[in-house]
Amino acid sequence: MKKISLPLRLENLKSGDEVFFSGIIYTARDQAHRKLTQALRSGKKLPLELKGNIIYYCGPTPAPKGKIIGSCGPTTSSRMDNFTPALLKAGLKGMIGKGSRGPEVIRAIKKYRAIYFLAPAGCGALLTKYVKNKKLVAYPELGPEAIYRLEVRDFPLIVAVDSKGHNIYQRQKERRKD
Hints:
By secondary structure, the chain is an alpha/beta fold. The protein is built from five helices and seven strands. Strands 2-3-4-5-7 form a five-stranded mixed barrel. The radius of gyration is 15 Å and the shape is globular.
């Protein structure tokens, strides 16, 4: 498995690659995405720097006593598809979630040279061991859907859609046809 960090070297990452990511990621789900895209449309300053960063489609549960974070598994990425092209245009470099992405998002990933990773679904409790620090960044009124800054070490991911638009889900469909 490849070890990666920011800044992402997209030319070295191909659809299907298994990686360990170490560095900073930001959690954001549906409502946070809505607020971010509204801020972009109205020209307001964003509460985080999108350029070159990664958003994890996750709403962590409250941390148990003595822990940094509660369960932090990925949510279904397609729910963010309506917001994703605008965030990529604003400089977002990567996304982490589960499930396939729509054609418009895949085109935007290719156009803006970004990447989409899969995190292991159903493993939210296990993924907590890779989170070394958590800090609230924005939208506390959203509870677990607020934006958090996570510092992670060796967070396990799979490249689902690479910067050239190669898509692991499309490859699987083509293999089934053979």
